[in-house]
Amino acid sequence: MREKSELIKRLFGRPVRIYLTLWILEREYQPFYLLEAQTALQTSGHAMSAVRAEVHTLLDCGLLAETPDGNRRYYTPIRSPWWGVFEHIGTALTLSDEAATASPSTPETAISTTA
Asked: Was domain 2-94 assigned CATH 1.10.10.10?
């Protein structure tokens, strides 16, 4: 996970943002409360404060709606083309993992530089 996190950080900023959006996608856009997301991502090494900050980033960017329910606030994903971008990032990370375990000489892992 450390190598993947470093790649995400270098390409997209904070890795926790990617992991949070992929967690939301895995849940099929179901509403969640903050502690639920924090607990899920804390098990993979992400600080609760970082998860909270990224939930608020997604809220500010219009990807989540916030609904109060007693003492909790639920966050519901809002339809946006940006979710597709995060889905593609998740696919790229999966393909990257598969390529890393494949033999370097296999044609599937080689990138042609000729046109």
From this structure: yes
